[in-house]
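Hello Y.,

Per our agreement to keep a running log of every chain we model this quarter, I'm adding this entry. I've kept the format consistent with earlier entries: sequence first, then predicted structure.
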Amino acid sequence: MNAQKKFEKIIKKNDSLVCLGLDPDLQKFPSHLQQSEDAIFEFNKSMIDATHDLVATYKPNIAFYEAYGIEGLKQLKKTIEYIKKSYPEIPVLLDMKRGDIGNTASKYAIAAFEYWDADAITVYPYLGYDAVKPFLEYKDRLVILLIKTSNPDSSMFQDMEAGGEPFYMAMAKKISKWPEDNISIFVGATYPEELKKMRKLFPNKFFLSAGFGAQSGQIEKAVRAGVDKNGGGIVFNASRSILYASSGKDFAQGAREEAGKLRDEINKYR
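Predicted structure for the entry above:
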């Protein structure tokens, strides 16, 4: 099963467009976990077990593991292996944000899809087609191209004029002509108008969005702008607002409640 079909199937099964970002921060963990040798994995496992019927995907951001060195990366590997073994129907979206010349990109692609075994990854398209192509050669995986990011200063360069239109739009139009079926699109939920434009340009592509919760994206506007004609075709990431909803021993239950609330709120506008 290719990645897009895997996403579509779990969205239907769990009736959810929630992407849970597994972004561990030891300082925010419940105190009883902080001294554990496998604290990151144990925390992630608790999050996964508590939310597996409420989400459409898990999105570990590799930076949060690299920050803890080799041990952090080992914990990431254990986390991905746990999802694959225990909940194989749920896609793993590895947030790597890679972007480099072709020869280097091919090695990043091997790491992402063969070592980490991700179903989807994030890639910067700014270097052009030859830098994205090595990822796209993995036909059964999704390559999520960052078009318009959710951070406040995204307009600094992404909105610069390029031929009478914003650079992100000019870039997106070029990408829309690329022939591969496994291209996916990222637009931040903090920019619902831009999200609407991208959905019109890519009516059948799968989307990732973010900015709910800690970044205060406008849920109704973003959902209505981002869903496809079937009310799906997109997942909305939330990390901190769910992971750290509670800092006590009930932290997993707190996360479950918050994930359920977000799922239900999103579903109002599908």
